[in-house]
């Protein structure tokens, strides 16, 4: 029997009952996707995950990639994984029919990615990195470059990557030093280094295609001088592949997420590394941000995928394990009770359930906005874009940070067994830790949210989000069991609004540096309110369905209401402390000096 790694019933509840993904077929672009087709898509994703990903979860962790003879060797199954993704059309699924895609709604693509990541995160990243890189090429490159690279990428023969980070320029992309020297024969000569490049080299494909940031010789300083290039590991000449002077200098040995390599690359040691300009010179960062924003929401999705697998592992253990007796029945002659009978175990399971199900709902909400941005028109399209832009730093960071706590709770429930590598819980804990770092640290996304996103377009996105949340509150007041929670969210929205106003005044009076000193706390507050919104949304749907639910569905729906109650009693109250701290102009972290540490 296949181990359970995600809750299919909850996934379908979010897709079909909460967000009504089936109604996307009102748009011509998604006309072929009725409820039955969507169900088949989810089933196909689970079948691929069960067959090609899950069985190698722990083996890929223990048999991590190795650096040999100037290249990286990965687990043999990776080649079969990539082949299965390509044959199933998953690499190109969201793209138009005319380009070899399936016009799959982003919501279904997210659902599939969630399943794949929960089954085997390391294995799931290879095809999605390729899909994102191919999307940059299809949106901004010349037709000749599209024809040269995309078919082999969609076919799973060539791996795609995003090559940004350098040894002396991590998140500070304005400081990159990789140089592109113009030639008179249509390409540039690339020289420099890149580090931490996911899937940057491996033997499961014929070629690696890097979407790489570099500065053309003589370009302006800072981000305005960054251009985007296609830099393949091998280039085609006379019908065959030959070295493109891209050297793999080594591999980084990671804490988790070990099945997928991250490489150190050196370009142009022989002054013969060809790079092909994508789009216009000096616009590379704006192009790359397209892939980065998609990847950022994807990081949040990966975080909740791993947390889901950890939750299911600890839940199964708690149901099967007998441990001790309840405080009211300490007689040693009585049999031990199930671990799940203990109140503190239930608390930790609720913590995980609230995080996994609440953040998945938020991420699917973001996917819904992405779908509307692509296929809707006019005000509906504009509104979706504003909301997606605002929520992106939250959707990336909140699941990432809380995923670490959630996987920790899974280990705690399993005790000593959870800490041992014989069981996957400790692997999930290690793998979860990458996500607060991936695609920009939590601090960077906090600066993005409070330093930019909240104020864009005269805070229109922020005001729209408050309206969406307020509409949810109004719906919830119609249900007796939700009235108290509706009041709590209403108060939370007012607190978030007031805190934001206070910070805007601080910006005017003290400047950006002071306002942003505790931006990470604002991001946490914003994220907690956002998840509370999603839980109240789910509560409304659960309350509606309970009125006519069959006996077999009641436990599931009542479980939703219990988890909603947990979030509002245990998690939502923390925003008061965060708000108090944010509204105090203390400046502790600015005033303390290096010498004081």
Task: Present the secondary structure layout.
Blueprint: H1 8-18, H2 35-53, H3 57-62, E1 66-68, E2 71-73, H4 77-87, H5 106-119, H6 121-140, H7 143-154, E3 158-163, E4 179-182, E5 188-198, E6 207-216, E7 226-232, E8 234-237, E9 240-243, E10 246-251, E11 262-267, E12 274-277, H8 284-320, H9 343-375, H10 378-414, H11 416-419, H12 425-432, H13 442-451, H14 456-476, H15 483-510, H16 512-515, H17 519-546, H18 551-571, H19 574-582, H20 588-591
Parallel strand pairs: 3-6, 4-6
Antiparallel strand pairs: 1-2, 4-5, 5-11, 5-12, 6-7, 7-12, 8-9, 10-11
Helix pairs in contact: 1-9, 2-5, 4-6, 5-6, 5-8, 5-9, 6-7, 6-8, 8-9, 8-10, 8-12, 9-10, 9-17, 9-18, 10-12, 10-13, 10-14, 10-17, 13-17, 14-15, 14-17, 15-17, 15-19, 17-18, 17-19
Put the structure in a nutshell.
With about 600 residues, the protein is an alpha+beta fold. It contains 20 helices and twelve strands.
Give the tags.
single chain; about 600 residues; alpha+beta; Butyryl-Coa Dehydrogenase, subunit A, domain 1; Butyryl-CoA Dehydrogenase, subunit A, domain 2; five-stranded mixed β-barrel; two-stranded antiparallel sheet; 20 helices; about 55% helix; about 10% strand
Notes on the protein architecture:
With 597 residues, this protein is of the alpha+beta class. It folds into three domains: 8-153, Acyl-CoA dehydrogenase/oxidase, N-terminal domain (Butyryl-Coa Dehydrogenase, subunit A, domain 1); 159-283, Butyryl-CoA Dehydrogenase, subunit A, domain 2; 442-591. Helix content is 56%, strand content 11%. The protein contains 20 helices and twelve strands. Strands 4-5-12-7-6 form a five-stranded mixed β-barrel. A hairpin with a 2-residue loop joins strand 1 (66-68) and strand 2. The longest helix has 37 residues, at 284-320. The radius of gyration is 25 Å and the shape is globular. The mean pLDDT is 95.
